[in-house]
Write a structure and sequence with these properties.
By secondary structure, the chain is α+β, with helices and mostly antiparallel strands. It is built from eleven helices and 17 strands. An eight-stranded antiparallel beta sheet has the order 13-10-12-11-15-16-14-17, with helices on both faces. It has a five-stranded antiparallel beta sheet with strand order 3-4-8-6-7. It is globular and about 60 Å long.
Length: 374
């Protein structure tokens, strides 16, 4: 155990003995999400650096405090990438999302519906549990799991189960061709197009429908072999846009800096709601003036609405087999949100509580971040 890791382990050990809550924090770019931010800050950015990278094997092992941008630059130099496009959510040039935060949040960008989520690329993980024990799970190949897949369990746990110190990830080559098509259409037509394309052998990678004023626009990104992308552009129609122009827009969609997201500042008392639905879900009956921004070929719908609309949004999502949660609370206090873990099943609550107790018996890691009870 090196010096930086030993120091962190000592802090965890002392916190467990004193039952002092710890708030695990990397770059802090996702502090806006979750129920509460309690405890003494435990900074993970001293755990920094790429441990090993084998481009020919499509696998990288990196320490949790490594800036995400640093990892992405190293991959790009080899013509490779994290295909799930993890959001950075940096609000200032000094902000730097970390690899550990990427895994802990488990959030993916516009390509999620086509390529998979963060957890699908997790190969192995090393962590400190609530007893300050250093534990390793998984490895550096896909078929390495005998028993529980603990590595993937850490994706989206928001640091409540342990402090990540090192992760191994599968990476992929950058697609040889890319194109973005634009279609002017209303929401219903956009969903019909996406549903029809989903049943065809097309290199669909990402999509975004947004209404600007009275005009609805669907953007579809294609990625894959050159011949496949060119053939899709001819068969799908629409207006083909310049890649150098659209690349920043897809990044803005990933990091929620598009005007649709930033305009929420002009709507006091409005929260940003995240509706996770089946891709084939129809147009939902939403509260008045709540026009969604739609991603993931219809499976992810963002809605700006006040807290009072929460029951209507949840009912609308459940009616089609989905769920609705607050992604960014309407007020300065994140506790006004519903949190990442909004379970309705008593059985699931018990499973999560038992997992939490197994990894963190003293309950010191990020208390209250995911659920009020722990």
């Amino acid at each position: 155990m090196d010096h930086a890791l030993a120091q962190i382990a000592d802090r965890v050990r002392a916190a467990a003995a004193d039952q002092t809550p710890l708030r695990i924090r990397g770059g802090g770019t996702k502090d806006f999400h979750g129920l509460a931010l309690h405890g003494e800050v435990l900074d993970t950015r001293t755990l920094r650096g790429i441990v090993s990278y084998e481009p020919s094997e499509l696998v990288v092992t990196v320490r949790a405090g490594t800036p995400l941008a640093e990892l992405e630059a190293a991959l790009a130099a080899q013509g490779q990438c994290l295909p799930f496009e993890p959001p950075h959510f940096a609000q200032a040039p000094s902000d730097a999302a970390t690899v550990g935060g990427m895994v802990a949040a488990g959030l993916s960008g516009p390509a999620r519906a086509s390529v998979g989520a963060v957890r699908d690329y997790m190969l192995g993980v090393t962590l400190l549990n609530g007893r300050a024990e250093l534990l390793s799970f998984g490895g550096q190949v896909m078929k390495n799991v005998a028993g529980y897949d603990v590595s993937r369990l850490m994706a989206g746990a928001w640091g409540t189960l342990g402090l990540l110190t090192e992760v191994s990830l599968k990476v992929l080559p950058v697609a040889p061709a890319e194109a973005t098509l634009r279609f002017e259409c209303n929401q219903a037509d956009a969903l019909r197009k996406l549903h029809a394309w989903g049943g065809q052998p097309l290199p669909l990678n990402a999509s975004c429908w947004v209404q600007d004023g009275a005009v609805g626009t669907l953007y579809v990104r294609l990625r894959g072999a050159v011949a496949a992308v060119e053939a899709a552009c001819r068969s799908m129609g629409g207006t083909r846009l310049d890649n150098t122009t659209t690349a920043p827009d897809w990044t803005a969609c990933r990091d929620q800096t598009l005007p649709w997201f930033t305009d929420r500042a002009q709507r006091p008392g409005h929260a940003l709601w995240r509706l996770s639905l089946p891709q084939t879900a129809p147009v939902l009956s939403l509260p008045a003036a709540a026009q969604p921004l739609i991603e993931w070929h219809g499976a992810l719908r963002w809605v700006q609405a006040p807290d009072s609309a929460g029951d209507a949004l949840r009912d609308a999502a459940r009616a089609v087999g989905g769920s609705a949660t607050v992604f960014i609370a309407s007020g300065a206090d994140p506790a006004s949100g519903s949190g990442p873990l909004d379970l309705k099943s008593r059985a699931l609550e018990q499973i999560h509580a038992r997992l939490k107790h197994s990894f963190d018996p003293a309950g010191i890691f990020n208390p209250g971040r995911m659920a009020q009870a722990w």
